[in-house]
């Protein structure tokens, strides 16, 4: 489940999570361990809810750990012996190493230089680089030089250079845990400064430097005693100011719950401070859990720093510098700052979003000027550059771009994408640099990274991401169709395949979907998919309701009480693929992960006859118990709470675990999870595994794949990603073979 759009979108498409299994040296048993049943019955609003494996939620209990370890060992032993598995792993590694390197998370500088993360073809983890203008790139930090306490790896969660480029703050997390620790590095030497901060909450806003690089704002979770309930973990997050070289524990508060009378936020909200370059203003951002609608405040940066310094000097009463820009009813989901103005993306009276503008010195949302009116395309985001506001549009997951020059009547200028690419997305801009960095996308062709020059209206290939030998192979195609769902609504469906596949029902087909938070499954290319496609496999992506492909209305049509549309759209797409001859139930698999676990979990429990196999990656499979977890509280806005009658019934309807029925012929299921997952607790997959193993009458396997050095998929290594994908493809092909060979 998301903690940020960026990280979540990287996981959504095809849900090729970087969660892998480290085989145990212990010999696996001939069968997975059987879980004991200890039914817990709770009544909610007059409904008795049975939970036969509640005891598994105590993941530190030795019995739970032993059962999970037994499942992990059995699954590892089984997957390692599958036909095609080693061959698939070899091909995936070969395809993955096609490009000599990959660059992402680009941060351009006003002097013409840039920072970025770069990963060589044979490297397990990306490193942080700096490239001066006209100079040669230089390695700033290599996370592979550090080993985590559990023997795993560290990964760079984020980085943020100071405006002068002399220092950089980075977040390091061990073994996919996303438990970031902030370090400050001297860029010239790579040496760490003494400033180190734990319990960082950087999922929504990374630390923000002052213009002179002398300090930064950051958000931090509070320290809790070991016996504190999990649900307290994200409560009372606070934003602080840190001056380099000063004690962290003395850092003053600047934006928090019950801090200023004119700032309203709850204990569950996530506050942060954003410092846009060249503006002179700071933005106080409040993220209401995983809801998209933001509350924003503005303050003059000098006033904010003065307030922080006064509080540090012991002043008890300091006037609030904050003025509200917008609140939840204003339906703002994104924004960009240029000088003294702010552009806001809102769905208020615009179901596919529009862009409005107001000032920061005296914000007046009610009288904001319309910059881009609502239309047929979804406004997917905005970024500010020196020359213009750059706008990201999308339609059915395909991205298009426009710019609105500053100082002129707000008329969007369309930007034609280069080299015939069907989709493009904004990668980076800088308020003090002209133009934009753009990545191009296609389902069957690798994208490039370009810089758009507004003076010539041309794109230049930056060579940041050179093409590899597998990035534009002949013989592969994609098609976009619409499928009628259960209620007549047309659902977009993307299909990727080899040109010579025959629509005779014989093609192994993997159908994936997500369908939550208003997030879209955007057009993208992954060379590792070729390992499936070259075997005659088909990949299909269902753009189900709950996602954002058709705007805010599409999101709300798959949320809480309307959530059944999500898995019913998925089922409709599966039935259409069968009816059109793309595949058959014996050759069809479904896949979903994280919040997409609701999608695949309920599709399988509602129509087990429709699928030969299913993959549930780090799945949210017990919606009724979700809010008892650390990350469950922020997700109440998206899914609901058992404390409200209508929302309880919605949660029960979407909870796959509670819809497993004894004696039902369920398809083969592979559940994957990383033990360090901070977003979806691993016990959700454990309970679902136990329930399916006990209930299914088909004789098809239910396997639980566990990685003890991974989490939700964020920050896993290249090798982990490759092993995971090979195991999943091998598992599916095994179940689609006729007859199915035994390992």
What does this structure look like?
It is a single chain. By secondary structure, the chain is of the alpha+beta class. The chain has a domain of 345 residues: 3-Layer(aba) Sandwich (Rossmann fold). It contains 12 helices and 38 strands. Strands 31-32-34-33-35-36-37-38 form an 8-stranded mixed β-sheet, with helices on both faces. Strands 3-4-5-6 form a 4-stranded antiparallel β-sheet, with no helix packed on it. Helix 7 crosses helix 8. It is globular and about 70 Å long. About 3% of the residues have low confidence.
Supply the key terms.
743 residues, alpha+beta, Rossmann fold, four-stranded antiparallel β-sheet
Give the radius of gyration.
25 Å
Classified in CATH, the superfamily of the domain at 17-95 and 471-736 is: Alpha/Beta hydrolase fold, catalytic domain
| Poorly predicted spans | 4-28
Classify the helix fraction into a percent range.
10-25%
Rounded mean pLDDT is 94
- Overall geometry: globular
Helix segment count? 12
Query: Which structural class fits the helix and strand makeup?
Result: alpha+beta
């Amino acid at each position: 489940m998301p903690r940020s759009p960026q990280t979540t979108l990287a996981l959504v498409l095809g849900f090729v999570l970087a969660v892998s299994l480290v085989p145990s040296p212990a010999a696996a048993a001939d069968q997975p361990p059987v879980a004991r049943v200890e039914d817990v019955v709770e009544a909610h609003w007059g409904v008795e809810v049975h939970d036969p494996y509640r005891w598994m939620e105590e993941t530190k209990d030795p019995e739970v750990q032993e059962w999970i370890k037994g499942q992990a060992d059995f699954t590892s032993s089984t997957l390692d012996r599958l036909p095609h598995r080693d061959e698939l792993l070899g091909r995936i590694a070969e395809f993955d190493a096609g490009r000599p390197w990959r660059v992402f998370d680009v941060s351009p500088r006003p002097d013409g230089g840039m920072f970025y993360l770069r990963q060589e073809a044979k490297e397990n983890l990306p490193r942080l680089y700096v490239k001066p203008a006209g100079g040669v790139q230089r390695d700033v930090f290599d996370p592979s030089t550090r080993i985590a306490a559990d023997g795993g790896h560290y990964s760079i969660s984020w980085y943020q250079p100071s405006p002068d480029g002399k220092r950089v703050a980075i977040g390091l997390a061990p073994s996919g845990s996303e438990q970031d620790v902030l370090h400050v590095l001297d860029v010239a030497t790579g040496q760490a400064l003494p400033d180190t901060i734990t319990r960082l909450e950087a999922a929504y806003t990374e630390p923000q430097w002052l213009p002179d690089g002398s300090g930064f704002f950051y958000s931090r979770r509070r320290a809790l005693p070991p016996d504190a309930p999990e649900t307290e973990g994200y409560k009372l997050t606070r934003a602080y100011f840190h001056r380099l070289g000063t004690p962290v524990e003395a850092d003053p508060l600047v934006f928090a719950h019950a801090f200023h009378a004119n700032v309203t936020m709850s204990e569950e909200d996530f506050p942060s401070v954003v410092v846009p370059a060249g503006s002179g203003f700071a933005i106080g951002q409040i993220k209401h859990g995983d809801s998209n609608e933001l509350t924003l405040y503005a303050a003059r940066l000098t006033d904010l720093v003065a307030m922080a310094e006064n509080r540090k000097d012991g002043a008890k009463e300091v006037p609030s510098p904050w003025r509200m820009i917008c609140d939840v009813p204003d339906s703002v989901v994104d924004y960009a700052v240029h000088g003294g103005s702010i552009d806001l993306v809102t769905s208020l009276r615009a179901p596919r979003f529009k862009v409005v503008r107001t000032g920061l010195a005296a914000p007046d949302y009610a009288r904001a000027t319309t910059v881009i009116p609502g239309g047929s395309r979804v406004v997917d985001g905005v970024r500010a550059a020196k020359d213009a506001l750059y706008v990201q549009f999308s339609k059915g997951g395909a991205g298009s771009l426009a710019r609105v020059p500053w100082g002129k009547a707000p008329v969007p200028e369309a930007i034609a994408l280069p080299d015939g690419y069907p989709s493009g997305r904004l990668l980076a801009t800088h308020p003090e640099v002209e133009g934009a960095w753009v990545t191009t996308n296609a389902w069957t062709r690798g994208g490039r990274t370009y810089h758009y020059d507004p003076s010539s209206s041309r794109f230049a290939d930056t060579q940041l991401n050179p093409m590899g030998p597998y990035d534009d192979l002949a013989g592969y195609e994609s098609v976009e169709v619409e499928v009628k769902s259960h209620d007549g609504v047309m659902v977009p469906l993307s299909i990727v395949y080899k040109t010579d596949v025959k629509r005779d029902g014989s093609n192994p087909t993997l159908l994936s979907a997500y369908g939550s938070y208003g997030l879209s499954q955007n057009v993208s290319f992954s060379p590792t998919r070729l390992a499936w496609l070259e075997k005659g496999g088909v990949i299909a992506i269902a753009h189900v309701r709950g996602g954002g492909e058709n705007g805010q209305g599409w999101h709300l049509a798959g949320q809480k009480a309307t959530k059944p549309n999500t898995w019913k759209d998925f089922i409709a797409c599966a039935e259409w693929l069968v009816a059109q001859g793309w595949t058959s139930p014996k050759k069809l698999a479904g896949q979903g992960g994280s919040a997409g676990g609701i999608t695949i979990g309920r599709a399988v429990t509602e129509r087990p006859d429709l699928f030969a196999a299913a993959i549930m990656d780090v799945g949210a499979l017990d919606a009724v118990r979700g809010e008892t977890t650390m990350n469950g509280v922020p997700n109440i806005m998206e899914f609901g709470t058992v404390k409200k009658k209508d929302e309880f019934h919605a949660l029960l309807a979407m909870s796959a675990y509670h819809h497993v029925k004894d004696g039902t012929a369920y398809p083969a299921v592979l559940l994957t999870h990383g033990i360090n997952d901070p977003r979806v607790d691993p016990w959700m997959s454990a309970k679902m595994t136990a329930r399916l193993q006990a209930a299914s009458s088909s004789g098809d396997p239910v396997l639980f794949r566990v990685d003890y050095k991974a989490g939700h998929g964020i920050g896993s290594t290249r090798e982990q990603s490759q092993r995971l994908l090979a195991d999943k493809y091998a598992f599916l092909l095994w179940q689609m073979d006729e007859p199915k060979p035994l390992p």
